[in-house]
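User: quick one - fold this with flavin-adenine dinucleotide bound?
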Amino acid sequence: MTHDAGKAQQALETDIAIIGGGMAGASLALLLDKYCPQFSVTLVEQRPLPQSGPLQLPSFDARATALSAGAIDIFKSLDVWPVLQTHCAMIERVHVSDRGHAGGAQLGERDLGDAQSLGAVVENAVLGPVLLEAVRNTGARLLAPATVTNLEIGARGAELLLQVSGAATTLRAQLVVVADGAESSLRKQLGIDQRYVDYQQQALVTTVEIDRSHDGVAYERFTARGPMALLPLPARDGAQRMALVWTRPDRESSADEAVGVERLLALPERDFCKALQDEFGWRAGRILRCGERHHYPLGLSLSDEQVRSHVVLMGNAAHFLHPVAGQGFNLTLRDCETLAQVVARGVASNCAPGELHLLMDYAESRQRDQALTIGFSDRVPGLFSSANPWLQVARQFGLLGLALAPPLRSAFARQAAGLGL
Ligand SMILES: Cc1cc2nc3c(=O)[nH]c(=O)nc-3n(C[C@H](O)[C@H](O)[C@H](O)COP(=O)(O)OP(=O)(O)OC[C@H]3O[C@@H](n4cnc5c(N)ncnc54)[C@H](O)[C@@H]3O)c2cc1C
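Assistant: Sure. Structure tokens for the protein plus flavin-adenine dinucleotide:
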């Protein structure tokens, strides 16, 4: 359905333009190819997308992502899973413990009812090349490095101004999907506001090496200052590795002896491992080494609108959640699949992909899941000090368990929302 129009004017045309080649944009390109291959798709990414070597995209940095069973099913349906699986560690059990209390609770596959597995963990640096290679194998056009500098929405569609290799180019699309990240400059250009809650916490992220097999156990530990998670990773060169997400307050308090994020980042490796061991305990074994340490400010941002005529906001541009429960990308993947299905349904009734009523259908069908998931993740910061019995139940099962086990999560979310079980 696409043809490059008049190279002299450097104007390009596409049915669907996706701005941002991160986890959201790349996944959506694959799902559109699966559900509505008749539409041409152009993926625009401001960073280079080399076919080999590391990617310098925010999505595909040093983090690891816990994929839910539902996300794995989507990747299976996209034929991406066979390759991805070879780089994943499957989660066999989730072990939950409270600092200061002996024992702990375990969540295994049997607790999941219908769900087939607890999920898997993949390093983002691996996920990126696998997704982008799969996108290259679709008919999608990749424009990178190319930056969208202006976005105008008219009655017939969207017109985007791009900078490609220093030259200005116009791209026209019936539907533009804005997946340009949490700081989304295009959302601002569209005049769409967002609500922001600053949790005044940071997530310190690194990879650690331990002295024994993790046996597929994902550990979640609650401390007075926030939760920490150690997630299984595939062994590398014989080393047993786990991904750490360690939540700490933004600033050090002189009143307690908490070591704030900045000091943890600056500690020599040996001292950092010792501080981590002291806080986490010995359940996962001795912590031998750690990789590069990174930190992410924790907040909740929600776009006031997710759809307009010819426009959809996707991924972090639409909602950015607390990461410790591991839900942000899993939620985005479900958003992407529904959008592709709705656009495909529009074909049967002769609807162009950017028509408002179609996009409103999409927004409506995502409302409940988004509200439950976002509501749950927003309550995370309060989980650790509250005496509310339902929040204590959440602590028993663990955030990760709730995130990976839909029936539990939904039971908790229904109760927390006052709907009853
Ligand atoms: C510490 C941490 C741990 C997490 N762990 C999990 C987890 O275990 N499970 C889970 O489900 N989720 C997790 N998440 C959430 C997950 O990382 C996000 O859902 C995901 O990064 C969303 O990516 P995105 O593509 O929306 O945005 P981004 O990754 O920000 O991508 C946006 C892209 O748009 C490009 N771009 C920006 N502006 C332009 C422009 N004008 N023109 C062209 N290109 C542009 C950027 O270069 C970038 O590549 C975690 C998040 C954090 C912070």
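One thing worth noting: Residues 7-85+124-194+299-416 form a domain with the FAD/NAD(P)-binding domain fold (CATH 3.50.50.60).
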